[in-house]
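Dear colleague,

Following up on Tuesday's group meeting, I ran the structure prediction for the two-component complex that the binding team flagged. I've pasted the input sequences exactly as they went in, so you can double-check that nothing got truncated or mislabelled along the way. The structure tokens for the whole assembly follow below. Feel free to forward this to whoever is handling the docking comparison.

Inputs:
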Amino acid sequence: MIRVLHVGVGPVGQRLARYAAARKELKIVGAVDPAPDKAGRDLGELCGLGRLGVPIHPDVASAQRAHRAHVALLTTVSSLERIRHQVEELAAAGLDIVSTCEELVYPWKTRPALARAIDAACARHGATCLSTGVNPGFLMDFLPLVLSGVCQSVEKIRVQRVQDASVRRIPFQQKIGAGLTPAEFRRKKAEGTLRHVGLTESMHLIAARLGWKTTRTVETLNPVMASRRITSGYTPIEPGMACGVEQIGRACIGRREVIVLEFRAAVGEPESFDRIEIAGDPPIHSTIAGGVNGDTATCAIVLNSIAAVLASEPGLKTMADLPPPAWMP
Amino acid sequence: MIRVLHVGVGPVGQRLARYAAARKELKIVGAVDPAPDKAGRDLGELCGLGRLGVPIHPDVASAQRAHRAHVALLTTVSSLERIRHQVEELAAAGLDIVSTCEELVYPWKTRPALARAIDAACARHGATCLSTGVNPGFLMDFLPLVLSGVCQSVEKIRVQRVQDASVRRIPFQQKIGAGLTPAEFRRKKAEGTLRHVGLTESMHLIAARLGWKTTRTVETLNPVMASRRITSGYTPIEPGMACGVEQIGRACIGRREVIVLEFRAAVGEPESFDRIEIAGDPPIHSTIAGGVNGDTATCAIVLNSIAAVLASEPGLKTMADLPPPAWMP
């Protein structure tokens, strides 16, 4: 049995705990969250699982003293700066780490010094750390890399993740700006709350694994504008208002564009899909019809990665460094 | 530079050598083939690359004495029984091995004693051995496993590889029985020449990695019959004659069918595609439109696997044990 410590029990952490509770090979031994409305409570009760007898501790030290877990599932923040000390503390406490921190998926190009520091701390303590998720971590980086495994040459990789947000949770529809006026959209964009974190990290992971020395990576973020009245979402959207967001990442080698990642989520989008196109020999045109449900998939891939992380040599790893996660009952 | 020895220079080996010659990180140092029309010749001249100064040796010992290669690319036979001593000889000569032997892709269930013997020989000599290819090795086993990495539960996996053989080489069209009468098809089937080798190995690899204890795996092989006159292939096919082959593998746990692999190649097939359907949470419906060109892909994945094989600990490995191959220029 693998002894699991949940670090961070926000919405993602709670879902993860529900999923972990269903896995035969995992035993949830403890949780950590300093929030006053969580610390001291029972994890199962917080997650709607009924009482599990698993306490939520206010800090890692007391949790690990009590439970001696093998692996921490770290679902706290998106920022590399902020996750750094959390990773170091967990590594020092003798834990391997699987995280959902978007900027930790591939920090070697954006913040090489910080990446080296985290890697060195993990190595010093004999801990392995991997950050993953559906995106970044799978659909727009790992899966295109896997598909390139059958290519004799690769000229360019284009990935599209397109989602009809009508069927998604209200907070998700709000997060992508559905129903905002153009001015409101611009303000939210300036605040940074509309941005999907991880597109640049995905580009860097692809480029590093393919040996591409990219000279420029850029991201753009724009509203998807409603051209007709849309009533399929949580609120009616009038023509000329935003119904969602389109974020595009582009990476170039000199003047040659080699990676394009397009993430588009909008209420009323006619079709959801995840598409990978590799211009190469052979060319690859792969489509996942309906797309992959992100909430489920992120929690699943974290759990499915645990075995490979536990078996790995120490250090800060990427999805390309380890045997692929696969479902294990 | 990685020093490569080509062992077996039949059609696949020759194509592989042409592909390897185009890779910057590889240096072809030698080749082995005992066939009287090959041994003693220059590999480049045999492969249509012009003189490379790379001799084809009649045996491994003399080749390795002369060239001190790091890795052998083994493209000789499909049979585990026959590949065994070749692998052991290469391992004893200090070489890591990437093979295209279909039965070696996952021999642990079909021939566990033989698999253990090969694994032990590799471990004894510090050699790593991997067998791979487009199928088995990727499309019908590794790729569905990778996709299951985002699943919280998996009930069943179905893979379809459907190919319009009209555009393929004449030997391929002949191999799948296109243009045979039903009686001729039955005779060829009985001789075993129509069979795609590896479907059972793919099922075993999937089941092992997913922790499924299958109780039964079966394969069926039947002709695809022409219902109209087909003129798109190398020879006209009349109604009632075979235009190709359909081979289906099924794996069950008790009475529950958990894996279905359908391989169908026929002249006049309306569409080529590779499709993976995972019944699970989330469900996955993935299609590679047009399918993946098998000749190119098999050679590419062999070359793309070399780095992971060289970095691995010794032993007989499967695709699920190593970081995924990805294209490297």
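Chain B has ten helices and 13 strands.

Cheers,
M.
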